[in-house]
Design goal:
binds fe (ii) ion; Four Helix Bundle (Hemerythrin (Met), subunit A); mainly alpha; 81% helix; 128 residues
Length: 128
């Protein structure tokens, strides 16, 4: 099964959001196979950049549409920001791999619980 197929379930239907989500998913999915510490550091830094692009876009969309679950959604972004900054501040050890797998789970839970709810809401507003 390709990574695109594995990601399929988490698709929101918003092209830019899905592009950033897929890149984040693929980076963390592949992280466990990267043994070179410098490359792994670069991967984590790239993940942070993608997370910022994604959350900035979503928060802008939510503000424009006065999304009713905005506070809850932004709060989850903030929790994840803290997790990512914590990971970046620590040296790479064997634990880093477990931490990144936990982060991937949390990322997928966020897509499912928050992002998949947001995009259909915005699409419904457009058709009103
Ligand atoms: Fe997102
Ligand atoms: Fe989000």
């Amino acid at each position: 099964m390709s990574l695109i197929e594995k990601f399929g379930h988490y698709r929101t239907g918003h092209i830019e959001v899905d592009a950033a989500h897929f890149e984040m998913f693929a980076l963390l999915y592949l992280a466990k196979y990267i043994k070179n510490k410098q490359i792994l550091k670069e991967l984590i830094a790239t993940f942070k950049d993608l997370w910022k692009v994604d959350t900035d876009l979503e928060e802008k969309l939510m503000q424009e549409m006065s999304y009713p679950y905005m506070a809850h959604h932004i709060n989850d972004h903030a929790k994840m920001n803290l997790r990512i900054n914590h990971i970046i501040s620590r040296p790479i050890t064997t634990d880093t791999y477990y931490v990144l797998m936990d982060l991937l789970n949390e990322l997928l839970i966020h897509f499912e619980a928050h992002d998949k709810k947001l995009i259909p809401f915005l699409e419904a507003l457009k058709t009103k």
